[in-house]
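Thread: "does anyone have the structure for this chain?"

Original post by V.I.:
We have the sequence but no experimental structure in hand. Need at least a predicted one for the grant figures.
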Amino acid sequence: MDEDGAVATRFAPPDALPDLEREEVMLASNLIIDPNGNIQYMSLLNTQDFDAKLVALRNKMDELLQDDTYKQTSSADFIKYKGSSSTNIESDGQSAITVSFQIKDGYHIQANKVNDDSLVPVRLEMGTSEGVYYGQPIFPEWKEFKMEGTNDRLWVFDEMLDVKIPIKITEEKLRRDYLLKGNLHYQACDSWKCYFPRVLEFEVRFSIG
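Reply from O.Q.:
Generated one for you, tokens below.
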């Protein structure tokens, strides 16, 4: 897009001795740009600073990754498991458990259905336990959300997410107490960007009453 080379010339260091014309210097550069859009490192492919193995680039990347400022937000910062309701199952063996998750203020997660193929829908999976069968998780109705800089409206969940899990206990395997382990696969976004998909592990305990 820089047809006359003016932008490249502006960013090229004044003491560079490139093999290319000065306005083409940026075509042979390596940049590290932080989440705030600031250039933290720039190297040039030139006779003065040639680095075929990108040693300096790798060292700078390692340095930045050790800086807490640039570390990724942990899963716990995006969403937390808040527990479950209906933990006392009737003796007929059929009921449902609702698991609740709190989504951090300022963030949302993609709904269980998405309207953009590049996004990852939320998915809840439960581990196996002898004598316990669970049905397809039932998610609430999603909300529409418009990210900054686009007119597209995403389908998302925010604030609290309550998911209903149909449960069936086989009579011949009836016990008093049960422990189910589950994973919530999700992708979190804020108003400007979306983060890598993550997994939150949780446990559900319930009793036969």
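V.I.: this helps a lot. The chain has a mean pLDDT of 78.
O.Q.: and The CA atoms of residues 15 and 48 lie 10 Å apart.
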